[in-house]
Specification:
Blueprint lengths: L2 H25 L1 E2 L4 H6 L4 E2 L3 E6 L4 H16 L4 E6 H7 L4 H6 L7 E6 L2 H12 L6 E7 L7 H14 L2 E7 L10 E7 L15 E9 L5 E8 L4 E3 L18 H11 L1
Parallel strand pairs: 3-7, 3-8, 4-5, 4-6, 6-7
Antiparallel strand pairs: 1-2, 8-9, 9-10, 10-11
Helix pairs in contact: 6-7
């Protein structure tokens, strides 16, 4: 075989291998719907990994809504387990099934677990991650829990990789610490767009900052949650209404011109 043919064959094999790797890479990621965020994440959020969401300040409800959207995207209509501490429920209240339904989640596919403390919550989440029938596991931990250290994070990551189930960690009243998380988000509330006359409030809008991305750059975006489509998107440009000139009052410019002529 000539050198030219050998070189061409090697090039083709390399191209096929890259295409196959790219296809497998895409299958292991779930697009969020926000074009720029998905491009930064190389196609979306990775499955079978740990992702952390931190509430900015006292915005636990905002972070809960954001992680509920992520869970809806990652679970693919499969059962979802949400593990909470008793203390979390005392501080922020119970999860609202009607609220989750409005966000697009099916409450019939949601199993909530109340753990006595952080240790019990970690054990429960690890056991849930071992069940490959689940779509995702949400672990909600309140405060700067010393038990959730690098070793515990690594155990959760290994469990997620073994089963293929995605772990989503919701951290409230906590500061980021070293972990094996694939991504880390800090979430704040953003202004909702004007709502129609049929709705009392606008669509959920999040100020989402990606501060850790193990395989790429970070970024910050305003992300609007589409409840009907169950995905994030770029907020549409909403024009602000302009007050009309009162019908019985002359335009200021015309009135000023009349005064000039009278003088």
């Amino acid at each position: 075989m000539s050198g030219a043919r050998t070189s061409t064959l090697a090039t083709l094999r390399g191209s096929i291998e890259r295409l196959e790797q790219g296809a497998a890479h895409d299958l292991n990621r779930v697009a969020l719907g926000h074009m720029v965020a998905d491009a930064t994440l190389q196609g979306g959020l990775a499955r079978a990994a740990v992702h952390e969401v931190f509430a900015e300040g006292h915005q636990s409800a905002t972070a809960t809504g954001f992680i509920a959207g992520l869970a809806g995207r990652m679970s693919s209509r499969r059962p979802l387990v949400w593990v909470r501490q008793d203390f979390s429920e005392i501080e922020t209240g119970a999860l609202s099934m009607s609220g989750l339904c409005e966000l697009g989640l099916d409450p019939r596919l949601l199993v909530t677990v109340r753990a006595q403390d952080t240790d019990a919550a970690l054990r429960t989440a690890a056991d849930a991650l071992a069940c490959d029938a689940l779509g995702a596991v949400v672990l909600e931990v309140w405060g700067q829990a010393r038990q959730l250290d690098l070793v515990a994070s690594r155990k959760l990551t290994l469990a997620a990789q073994a089963s293929g189930v995605t772990a989503l960690l919701l951290r409230v009243a906590a500061e980021p610490r070293p972990s094996t998380a694939e991504t880390r988000w800090i979430v704040r509330a953003a202004h909702s767009p004007p709502s129609g006359p049929w709705s009392a409030w606008g669509a959920p809008v999040f100020d989402a900052q990606l501060v850790r991305n193990r395989h790429g750059p970070v970024g910050r975006w305003i992300m609007e949650w589409k409840c009907d489509e169950c995905l994030f998107s770029e907020p549409a440009a909403y024009s602000q209404p302009v007050a009309a000139t009162p019908a019985r009052r002359s335009h200021p410019a015309a009135a000023y011109a009349g005064q000039r002529r009278a003088s």
